[in-house]
Design brief:
mainly alpha, Receptor-associated Protein, about 80% helix, about 0% strand, elongated
Length: about 375
């Protein structure tokens, strides 16, 4: 008999995040257990012991409690809306009624794995140049505020003229050293403003628009959303969820608030018996959020009644486009950062060594 201790039930968690890899592991393991004719209760008990995420494990323990109370699995997951999103619940509910719960879980596992790999690829591509850029900034500040000030007295004592680049380096060092406290206070004020703005209602909307407007990021972000929408639409239509409900579910689960509003509007258009492609075209006349090739493929395959198949192909196409965009980003940004590092090294090297050479010559 499953029992949750008092300490477990009262435990609070600082971080309440459930990663895609946690979801993938949960769905895959549960699907494999059900395929082996293990009961849903025993499968969940086994999974609970394997989960390392404390918060996720506590919610799975709640799920076990509901299942033990003779609720169906779909009804049980409905009672945990902060863990399972509406689209996952809809797929689980539909397939469970057909007696194919294991197939639903396997599909959700594959989707979670694909999402995890795509997010990881995007994160790794951007994290490398960002970390390199931060390292350059830290190194620059250390040299300007610590190394150069220790050399300046030697230059001042020589009382000789230096090159323009050396004088700029000395002035820059003194400016940062003398005003460092002001820079620190400015950084603190910026952080306070940032966290205040992040807690405001405008944050989510402004970030969503910014991600779709930035020259480098917009194409990657849009393609990621389109790949996710196509994959979700494939899964939902494959289990015969009606199109109006499918777009409403995708609106609830999408991460971008701009697309969330558009998907809700498309759902409304479909409810008055419009085709998907026409509904999307009505909501996005300039094809800013749904490009023309996306609509053309939907339009052709919608008439052939093979929507789940084409949506999966669309998802694969936009995933491939993300790969190309990330490759282009790496080829453009990383050489630029390396060039900045080279220029800084040349500036420091030329300024310092030319000054040292002049001082040496004056002594001799």
């Amino acid at each position: 008999m499953f029992k949750k201790t008092k300490s477990e039930s009262k435990k609070t968690y600082l971080f309440k995040n459930i990663s895609e890899i946690d979801r993938y592991s949960f769905y895959e393991y549960l699907s494999n257990m059900l395929d082996s004719w293990v009961s849903i209760k025993d499968a969940l008990l086994s999974i609970s012991d394997r989960i390392e995420n404390g918060y996720f494990r506590s919610r799975i323990d709640e799920l076990i409690t509901f299942v033990i109370s003779w609720d169906s699995f779909s009804k049980s997951v409905k009672r945990l809306p902060d863990v399972f999103n509406p689209m996952e619940i809809s797929i689980i509910e539909t397939w469970e009624k057909k007696g194919k719960l294991s197939a639903a879980l396997e599909r959700l596992a594959k989707n979670s794995e694909a999402t995890y790999k795509l997010k990881t690829k995007i994160r790794d591509t951007f994290s490398s140049p960002i970390l390199l850029f931060i390292s350059v900034i830290i190194a620059f500040l250390l040299v300007i505020t610590y190394v150069i000030p220790n050399i300046i007295p030697l230059f001042d004592a020589s009382e000789i003229g230096f090159s323009l680049w050396t004088n700029i380096l000395i002035w820059t060092s003194r400016f940062f050293s003398e005003n460092m406290m002001y820079f620190l206070w400015f950084a603190v004020v910026l952080l306070i403003i940032f966290f205040w703005y992040k807690s405001s209602e405008k944050w989510e909307t402004d970030i969503a628009h910014m991600m779709l407007e930035l020259p480098i990021l917009w194409n990657i972000h849009r393609n990621y959303i389109l790949a996710s929408i196509a994959l979700d639409l494939s899964d939902l239509t494959d289990v015969w969820v009606n199109l109006e409900e499918a777009f409403e579910l995708m609106g609830k689960t999408t991460e971008n608030i701009v697309y969330k509003s558009i998907l809700y509007d498309i759902s409304t258009e479909i409810s008055i018996w419009n085709e998907i492609s026409k509904s999307i075209d009505t909501m996005d006349e300039e094809n800013k959020y749904f490009p023309s090739d996306f609509l053309h493929m939907l339009s052709v395959w919608e008439k052939n009644k093979t929507l789940p198949k084409v949506c999966k192909k669309i998802s694969q196409q936009y995933t491939s486009e993300i790969d190309h965009c990330l490759l282009k980003f790496s080829k453009k940004v990383e050489p630029m950062i390396v060039a900045v590092i080279a220029l800084l090294v040349l500036w420091f090297g030329f300024s310092v060594f030319s000054a040292i050479l002049k001082v040496t010559q004056s002594v001799l």
